[in-house]
Write a structure and sequence with these properties.
Chromosomal Replication Initiator Protein Dnaa, Chain: A, mainly alpha, 154 residues
């Protein structure tokens, strides 16, 4: 018997939105952390999807843009960098999603675009590119996702 629960993405989005609103309401209370995922089995589809949603939210918060503004058919440097960060950070830390699925997440792009963006972001990090390091550091400091091995990752 499997412990995996398949939950539609739109339901997860509502849950994440509720968590965000709750976190905003209690931000000033010391020592309180709202974490709806704490008692879920590690490695379930719901946790993986929640990780991808959290990554989207962090990229939106970093950029000040809505996700729909990031995934438009626009090749501006800023938007390409944000999509590349999503591909790289998601594949490196969350996983469990095919290149095709990630391509759909970023505006129905081809899987080879996901491969290119992932590689491009990795190269930018390796060469010390300031904008990529900035977004990487922001996401890393604001996001921890439990892996299947129960190790914190980002």
């Amino acid at each position: 018997m499997s412990n995996i629960v398949n939950v539609p993405v739109d339901v997860l989005q509502v849950i994440v939105k509720l968590v965000e609103e709750t976190e905003k309401n209690i931000r000033n209370m010391t020592g309180i952390r709202v974490d709806l995922l704490i008692n879920l089995p590690k490695g379930s589809d719901m946790i993986v999807e929640a990780g991808w949603l959290k990554l989207r939210q962090l990229i939106c918060r970093y950029s000040g843009l809505n996700w729909s503004d990031i995934i438009v058919s626009d090749r501006s440097t800023e938007l390409v960098l944000l999509r590349a960060a999503y591909c790289y950070m998601g594949r490196q830390t969350i996983g469990s999603r095919s290149l095709n699925q990630i391509g759909k997440d970023i505006g129905n792009r081809h899987h080879t675009t996901v491969m290119h963006l992932t590689s491009m972001f990795a190269d930018m990090l390796e060469t010390g590119n300031t904008p990529s390091l900035s977004i990487y550091t922001f996401i890393k400091s604001n996001f921890t996702h439990e892996t299947k091995n129960n190790e914190a990752a980002v």
